[in-house]
Amino acid sequence: MTWTLVVPLKPLSQAKSRLDGGVPEGWRPDLALAFAQDTVGAALSCRRVGGVVVVTDDARAGCALSALGARIVPDAPGPSADGLNAALAHGARVVRAALPQAPVAALNADLPALRAAELDRVLRAAAGAGRAFLADAAGIGTTLLAAGAGVELAPAFGGPSRARHLASGARELGLSAVDSVRQDVDTVPDLRAALRLGVGPHTSGLLAAWCPDPQPPAHTAPC
Fold this sequence. Notes:
By secondary structure, the protein is α/β, with parallel strands linked by helices.
């Protein structure tokens, strides 16, 4: 089974706001883009992924992610109280307008340690499950929600989304050894955890350029 992934991305100026105060001023947009580039690059190298659709209105991000091979779709719903889920539902509709029976999976854009082999395991487990999801490393949120052919994606991301996806009837994928698919980055401790797993070339290159000293004080940015 070949999946099309839908990846939502806020305008870079608004992304990763919870990193404020933990990284030097001006880092957030570049980090958000690097996270997305490593996520999309790893996803496109996964053998079960036929394509990646990125839903974003950010021109810079669209250009960079298109260069990796992603299809860029404008965030037609625009700002709303449920902007993330509206963007994901919109992306899924765009995919299925062209491929009505396509299996679709929503994937977070902030998985800089993502490994194609681990994503492959998750998508293999999701095949035939109707709707299935993977909880984040904290066990509270969701990093991936999959919907098989003919099944509505019905995303409920944001905050305690694990509970909402369970309540909606989606099956939780209780997989081990897929840490790179679970480790999203919202905070500095999250970033440190991703660095321990080993982040992709865009994030690692950015941090290396900014942080030549590998042992910064604990309260500063995680170089």
